[in-house]
Amino acid sequence: MPVATTSSEGYFTYEPSSPTSSSSSCPSSPSSSYRRPKTSPPLDVCVQINADIRANPTLNSPYFDLGGHIMNREYCMQNIIYPDETHETATLLDVGVRDLLPAPVPPPVPPPKSRTFEIKETPQKHGLGMFAAQNIPAGGLVAVEHPTVILPYVLGVEPDCEAELYAELLGRLSASTAERFLSLANCKPGSSLKGIMNTNAVAIALDVPDVPHAELSTHRAVFLNMSRCNHSCSPNAAWHYDSPSFSLSLEALRPIEAGEEITVAYITTTCSAAERSARLEAMYNFTCSCTICSLPPLALAQSDAARAELAVFWRHSNRIPSFEAWCRDPRMGDTVLIDAHKRALDLIEHEGLQVLDYGKHLDAIAMGYGALRNVYLFRAWMWRAREARPLGRLDAARVMQKWIREPETFPVWGWRRFSRGPRSS
Ligand SMILES: C[S@@+](CC[C@H](N)C(=O)[O-])C[C@H]1O[C@@H](n2cnc3c(N)ncnc32)[C@H](O)[C@@H]1O
Known about the structure:
The protein has 13 helices and 14 strands. By secondary structure, the chain is α+β, with helices and mostly antiparallel strands. It has 3 domains: 249 residues, Beta-clip-like; 35 residues, no CATH class; 98 residues. The strands form 3 sheets. Strands 1-2-3-4-8-10-9 form a 7-stranded mixed sheet. Strands 5-6-14-11 form a 4-stranded mixed sheet, with no helix packed on it. A hairpin with a 6-residue loop joins β5 and β6. It is globular and about 70 Å long. The site of S-adenosylmethionine has 20 residues, from β6, α6 and β11. It holds the Pfam family SET. This is SET domain-containing protein.
């Protein structure tokens, strides 16, 4: 069993303990576990990390307290063994999280039947990237993959310990997998394994125990293929993590042509180009040269304005009424809600931001026409909403198909009773 060395300085120590010290429900290799520190980090470290974590909406942890958090951690390293043994995952997890991993790990979502992507050099010298090997329709599955390495979002150890833990984690992978891992990009050359982890990590949510000072559900996962996706501020694909099958899927947000680069968004795409640039520089050490960021100044300012408008779309309850309020209120125009969603769709399509609630706007427009009992437009927009569903979601597609055939079975059919609009049924 690999044994980690003990750090004598700093606010954390970790020591190997018996591999049988905690039971695992997950099929796995022997584990090594590390107890947590006896002391808290310096106050300034706590204050900074607490502020960052509390302010990060993705982490959903507004009361995060680093001191309490790390005192309650007991990390363990363990490999996940898959039924078909075609993949390996080395994990560094809090034992409470490890015990909640799916057992047995099911196979991932079935991968596409034919080769959908290839990894090759990008013409813009962004290193390697993922490219479509065939035409992929909107909602199509590009790839599906188990993670190779998983670790907590916040690893409460001092830098020396961290480097040792990463090295040990890598040592748990086979030589060929470790070699592929080491060939991944590193945006902070010189920072070795930590740099590779941070450059390539995808945030995934794992189940965490419901206890005080629980581990954050957000974890960092590195993938050998998916982590090759480069960033775009108008991405044509998005990652989806499926917790039960322990796999990450990559789905097309709009049609992708054979040979086109497959891109995802590393950061929030609705902030201004200047903000995006600052974040990408700080986190990934590159200047974005995507089609949007390369626009001339006037067009870039218009893009910023469009994105700012989209960012607050759902927050403007005074400007955009709720569906129920619109259905009840005869003083509101028949198309006020529909027009607002159509405007958002136009902005999304212009900006290439299908990553933002594209399907939700289509659903809302179809719902609006359903409430107005406009059979023709209801069918047309429900068709578009159905087409925008990821291809694998067969249940949703079937239900929508039924509504298209029999509009009066749509749950909110005719809810806006005082409509003066066209009524075709
Ligand atoms: C997760 S890796 C992506 C794959 C990487 N290109 C490779 O060769 O493995 C992230 C790194 O790719 C590069 N990169 C990604 N998107 C980029 C973009 N839009 N413009 C320039 N470089 C980019 C940056 O060096 C970044 O640190």
